[in-house]
Amino acid sequence: MPDYKQLITIEPGKRGGKPCIRGMRITVGDIGWLREWMQEKQFMQSGKSNEVN
Hints:
This protein is mainly α and 53 residues long. Helices cover 42% and strands 8% of the residues. The protein has two helices and two strands, in the order αββα. The longest helix is centred in the last third of the chain and has 18 residues, at 28-45. The relative contact order is 0.12.
């Protein structure tokens, strides 16, 4: 498993000082949001529904 300290940087002038993926302007929070969005999108594409019959 890679050391997260090698993958994540915190720079005051980049994205308001939020932790970012090294070499990118993608925050760690963006990754979490993207993961949740993708799971929801996959759920919607599966045809399942939360409705109770």
